[in-house]
Amino acid sequence: MAMYTRRTWMQKKIAITAGAGAASALSVVKPSAEGQIASTAKKGNFKLAWALGYNPSQLKIIRQIGVNHAIAYVWEALGKVNSDQYVDTLKKIKADFESAGFTIAGVEGHSTPAEHIMLGTPGRDEEIINYCKMIEALGKVGIPMCCYNFMAGIGWYRTRFDVPERGGALTSEFDYQTAEKEGLTQWGKISEEKIWDNLTYFLERIIPVAEKAGVKMALHPDDPPISPLRGIGRILTSADAFRRVMDIVPSPVNGIAFCQANFKAMGEDIEATAREFCKQGKVFFVHFRDIDGRAERFRETFHDNGPTDMARMLQVYYESDFDGPIRPDHAPTIEGESEQSHGYGVVGKVLAIGYMKGIMDALDIPYQ
Prior knowledge:
The chain is α/β, with parallel strands linked by helices. Helix content is 39%, strand content 17%. It starts with 5 loop residues before the first helix and ends in a 6-residue tail after the last helix.
């Protein structure tokens, strides 16, 4: 990885400047809007964020390094209460984060159960009704974005977590051949067509509710973006797949969590793809991370130690009017941290935040 000096930053900067309702939830209702609307922002509006549950000690560290926005994990709290308590529970979570100095920019992960939804198994209608109640509650308390995925049966998947990175830090790796040796999951074989049907069923019922609630639905790519994985079809494995998703239910709240390393693993031109979706106003959330390799085999890298021009990507988001939260993701485990952090330790993310802030300050990219 090239070393960046002050002269390098100035040369890069000059070059860039020169180039510059539960009961009705199961009814299919057409959302209003044409969908592919363009952002009205003239330049990017970055909300530098960190994803975590309410953890006072971590929050203190994160505020001390200058992060003001949180992406909240709320599934544990919502899982302990009935749906009629979602609003009060989210109000309490929001107040707790605000008292620590944070604005919640969104929630991440399935905040209520969704396995039947993704698999298309009995019980999915009940899960959709509950999911709609959660989205309505987010809208009522003023949490504007929900990041979710559609990785049925398996979810986020790696084959190793002990691969050496710089200085002996530990990072994760995916190897398709190793994964296939694990065999089928308990769900057996599920076709991509079946997963597409399940996603369509979900979107047709959830997007109208989200639009009415004013909550943006940011769909995350499959990680890894390869299909099938242990017999289960993975469908969010290309930019074309996301274009299809936007067409299934056109709506200003049907959008993308742009995890740039996943789009890179797909083999996409991540700069061109980011520009396309950002200019359409469809990127609601950015996961800022890097990998070395492609979908069949890759490893996570430190944010400053991978092959991607990360400074250029931040400039691309800014030039393309990205307006939303951006957070570092999947940092290697640093000496002294638990090996069980699996990419979600604190110290590596502190490095990532400093790296991102340094780039943005050098390139005059404002952030909140």
